[in-house]
Each structure stands twice: as structure tokens, then as C-alpha cells.
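Contributing new complexes? Match this layout with iron/sulfur cluster.
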Amino acid sequence: MTAKTLFEKVWERHVVVPETVETPAVLYIDLHLTHEVTSPQAFSVLRARGLKVRRPDRTLVTMDHSTPTDTAQVFGGAPIALASAAQQIRQLETNCREFGLELIGLRDDRRGIVHIIGPESGATQPGKTIVCGDSHTSTHGAFGALAFGIGTTEVGYVLATQCLLQRKPKTLAIEVGGSLVAGVSAKDLVLAIIGRIGVNGGTGHAIEYRGSTIEAMSMDGRMTVCNMSIEAGARAGMVAPDDTTFDYLRGRPRAPQGDDWERAVADWRGLRSDPGAAFDRTVSLDAAAVEPMITYGTNPGMVAPVSGRVPDRPGDAVYARALEYMGLAPGEPLSDRPVQVVFVGSCTNARLSDLEVAAKVLAGRRIAPGVRMLVVPGSQQIKRQAEELGYARAFIEAGAEWRESGCSMCLGMNGDTVPAGHYCLSTSNRNFEGRQGAGARTLLASPATAAASAVRGRVTDPREFLN
Ligand code: SF4
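Output block (do not edit by hand):
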């Protein structure tokens, strides 16, 4: 029998019609995550053509991108300030009613960022094919699922057919061995990986993250790593499911229960690359050599250790333009740059463990004068847990704003934006021009670096706060 990779095993289970030279494969989709921003046009097409949603039971719908994070706007007392956001929210409610879909709506205590509530509810499971009209769907690959983002037109295809046309990507193994040192997190690791292979390093590939570092990582850490696979250009990122995965999923409302659970786990244990399985490419990294990382440019590949300096790339016009936008010059140290905004949130780093790290740094301290810090939990469930555990109190007492869940400043389309010219140290995943608001300058880093920098008011190595 041919040795197969994890990706090949999941792919082969879902091929309805194999690909040919002329045509892509028809792939069955187990779970379609849907939200208010990339679905309105797809529902309009269904309506115009008199089509139904093929599998409402395999369609999980929520709202996150344009939802406000201000409590009064979510729970009443103030109208939703942005008219475009209010319109998208109302339209999704209408579409779900009309097409018979369950909606995890604005005031639902199960609501949150789509890539956080999928795993949290147990809907994300090993071996599934999962799609969503959002690039960071790769997050779900942390469970051994094949998960990737799709465009608005494809959202319509999946709603109507529960299938998708896809070309089979190549496979890339990223082997990480050794232990991350104190103060260095999964976010630093994935930024270091992107720095190493570049923003196109994974193009056309499904990545499998492997090795002792990944095996020792929590599900939260694995989700952070897989989340940013797309920033290396990859189609998907995956981790083989193991006991850490099963412990995370056991008992969650949408996970299999009773005998079904035992059968599912027995099957999931086979979802790992066979010994000797061939990858198209392999890249190896030593986790112990990774330092706290921070971006300085306008894509996540422009990244260096916090202790480093802005590199020089003579003759590279795109790079020069990026530094001009960021107001930085080659040779400048990255640490000590003043920041005006700090954002802890997004589907990359708004899980309970991320908030715990940030709360530990902030406990008993105040954020620097002139700094605005937003802490936005990834889901309402995480919000409740963070309040029970005292993290929320640490944020509020430090002077940060504690918000309702949502995408918030990750993309600046819900009212939470960074002013032009301001530096925002952000735990999100994209630092493109204008991503957090017109003219905003984004520095991507870990929750520990974000919290330490909020206290100092300057980019700060979190290891200074370890003792
Ligand atoms: S937090 Fe950002 S990347 Fe994640 S789903 Fe929302 S907009 Fe997309």
C-alpha cells in the first residue's frame, strides 16, 4: 500500500469526481462556515435561480466581521453606529429566515469569530473538509481537517450543492523540533516560519506542521499556527490529530457523543501521514532559536525579532514603498518604537490562553499614557470565562477597553479602526496597507509582546516582563 500524507487521506475521502487535465476535482464539503460579509451576493444568486440550501445541517452561520464590539451597540441602548454594518447584519438575518438556516445571531451567547466558534462548538473535527468565505479558514486545519477560504461565488456553489471545484495542491511539510523558550509563543513561531519561507513560500501547497514542537503545542497554539498558513500563501495548514485534539473536542456540543465519539476517535487516529509518505517539499526549523517576533512592513513576511533592526534591501522598490508607508528606515531598531494603539484580538490570538498571557503581563500595571488598548475576546464564551478568571478585571484596571467579541480591529470595517499614521501593535494576522483603517500602520506580534508594549508605550520584548 502506498504511504500517504494526512492531506492525501482527507482529500481522497472527499473526492466526488476526480480531477483531470482539463477539469478540477469535485470535492464534497462537510462543513460550510458562513458570515455576513461574503454571503449576501451568494444568497441573492440562490434566490434569483430558485435554489435552496442543499445541506442546512452542514452550514454554520454567524456574524463577526462587521458586528460592533461596543456593548451598548450589541445589547441595546445605542444603535449600530455604522450603517453598512447594520445593513449586513439585518440582511443575514433575513437570508437565514428565508433559507431555513440556524443563525448564531448578534446577541447569541454562542456567537464569536467564525474560526473560533467552529472549534469551540465542536463543529470543527478531524478529517472534515471545511470552507468559509474568509482566508483564515486554515485555522481549522489544526484539528486535522482540510480547511480553506473560498470566494463569494464559491460560497454560492457550496450553499447550492455542498460541493466545490478544486485543484489538488502539492504538499509541504514544515518540521519544527525542540522547545520554544519562555516568552516565545506559537505566534512568534508562525511569524518566524513566514519570515523564513516568505509570503509566497507556501503557494500552491497544503502545509502539514509536524515535529516535537507541534506535538507538544496546545490546540490554541496549533490554531494560531494554522491560522497564518494563508499568510505564507498556502492553500491550507494541517496538524495530525492526537490526544490533545481529542481532549479538546470531547464533550463539546457539536462533537460526536457516546458510541459515536468512540467510533470517531478510532477513525481519527488513522488521520496522520504514514511513515515514509512523500511530501513535495520539506522545511525544518529549530524552535529553540525562535525569538519574540514583530513585523515592520506591509506583509507578514517583513518580520524580524523584536530585538532586531529594520533590514535594508537596496534596489527593492516594493520594499522601499512598504517602509515609506510604515514611516521606518533601514537600520532602525524595532524595539522602543512608540505605539499609539494596541489590539489584542482576532481569530489568530483571541482565545482564552492568549488573554491569559496578556492579563498576566498587565496585572497590577497600567498601560502607558496616550496608548489606546482594545482587548476583544474571540467569542462570547471566552468573554465569560475571561471575566470569571479575573483577566477582564486586569485589563480594565490597567486602562484597556474590554469589548464584546468580533473581528474588531483586525480589519477595520465595524467601527474599530486605527487612525491614519498611528502605529498599532496588533495580535491579528494581516498588516497590509489600510487593513486596520486608512493610513494605519500595523505591527503584528504575540499577545505577550502586545501587552508588554502597551505598558511601556513602546515596542517591548515581553521577556522583560517574565520575572
Ligand atoms: S478576525 Fe480577521 S482574519 Fe479572522 S475572521 Fe475576522 S476578519 Fe477574518
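Reviewers usually confirm one structural detail per submission. For this one: The CA atoms of residues 94 and 213 lie 46 Å apart.
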